[in-house]
Amino acid sequence: xxxxxxxxxxxxxxxxxxxxxxxxxxxxxxxxxxxxxxxxxxxxxxxxxxxxxxxxxxxxxxxxxxxxxxxxxxxxxxxxxxxxxxxxxxxxxxxxxxxxxxxxxxxxxxxxxxxxxxxxxxxxxxxxxxxxxxxxxxxxxxxxxxxxxxxxxxxxxxxxxxxxxxxxxxxxxxxxxxxxxxxxxxxxxxxxxxxxxxxxxxxxxxxxxxxxxxxxxxxxxxxxxxxxxxxxxxxxxxxxxxxxxxxxxxxxxxxxxxxxxxxxxxxxxxxxxxxxxxxxxxxxxxxxxxxxxxxxxxxxxxxxxxxxxxxxxxxxxxxxxxxxxxxxxxxxxxxxxxxxxxxxxxxxxxxxxxxxxxxxxxxxxxxxxxxxxxxxxxxxxxxxxxxxxxxxxxxxxxxxxxxxxxxxxxxxxxxxxxxxxxxxxxxxxxxxxxxxxxxxxxxxxxxxxxxxxxxxxxxxxxxxxxxxxxxxxxxxxxxxxxxxxxxxxxxxxxxxxxxxxxxxxxxxxxxxxxxxxxxxxxxxxxxxxxxxxxxxx
Length: 537
Description:
- Belongs to the GMC oxidoreductase family.
- The chain has 537 residues and is α+β, with helices and mostly antiparallel strands.
- The chain is built from 17 helices and 19 strands.
- It has helices at 6-19, 25-36, 44-54, 63-70, 76-89, 92-99, 112-123, 128-141, 148-157, 180-187, 222-233, 270-276, 323-333, 403-406, 419-438, 459-463, 469-481; strands at 163-166, 188-195, 202-206, 238-239, 280-283, 286-293, 296-304, 309-314, 318-320, 343-347, 353-356, 372-373, 394-397, 413-416, 443-446, 454-455, 491-492, 495-496, 522-524.
- The two termini are 36 Å apart.
């Protein structure tokens, strides 16, 4: 855990309390009463306990210590920058410099209202660096697509000796607590998110037995809102095939795994096939580098038991299947020189939009995983590239100048959202807002820091929610504002093309068989070999 000084903890606690303030007694009573309407156990003791919890300041819940533990996953320079920010906010002049607060007192001495105002100033700064600081603070206060499973099964069934080295540890579903913090730490790289250098993009990458397929994203009751809204607006809408072996799968927490074994992730399909065919496995193994002699692969070196024991594996064929971020990092750590390694990364960017529907009860934690999709904005640019499919953003891994960083196994990523992709995302948000409005939403919001919530306060607006001038003005504002750097929450669960396949080493990192141009017998078998972005999964 990163050690914070008492002063840094005080400042951090003040920040957390501004983002997630405890409820007043009146608000807590109302929220708990609403929650218990559909709960059988609504005893007085339970009610009082929930009301007390709702009024508890976040620092009393151990949030500060949790955040401190997350700082361990930051690069050293970024961690130091964050601690320097805490030190600045502990002074009056530093608080003024960063947030514009004219109280000229340390951040923790500001009233709750003044702290909230100071953070809002930070979020709307004209400087992208300060907006990124706000997003970093906010993120602290609140999958990798691989093909190795298939490859392991196919090779084992063909009679080859197969040893699978998996960084993730095996956790039996029945042993999972499904507590968010604990499961995220166990099952996701960097304990939930990998973050780009400027903080503008957050990536989800599975780090568990079965990889990203074990923690695949879910959706639930809001699917019906999507279906009904599309029908009312005459938007095209399609059913999504379900990867649940014919089961409804209404667990509601697929992002934390599946306690029932219904979701057909690789851990219950291909890996079982590989085991049945004689493949062997080492879980909790971190591969440090691929070994080779005269540009011919000879095996790998790595560690097990949380780095306590080093291992060497001798093999004529080595397959890297670490995903779009970590496969190029492994190749670079191993000394491969092809200039395309770590470049050309493509993503499926995702953002969120949400609405308040006073006439409907929507429990987002219940129901089956994603069941529907609309492609109403499927041709924004007239070339077939669309919002729900093939949205790409260019990344490059910091390579030679940061080779020292790859030596400890953590790639650093730079990201830039292109203007075409930004336009597509804006049109997607507007279409989503229309769907929510058509289903009775009287308030619609995004994670955009520069665009306020859309609120329909008059009977006239609510009678014509999509076409009323209030909504139309909001759509125009969203289009005019666009997506400046660090103004919108964006994440991606699909990272592709960072070791792309090509006909020549000048154009890609691997050949048409997935073999690296640099080392014979070293292959890549994950989404990083895609020549360009795939369609949505």
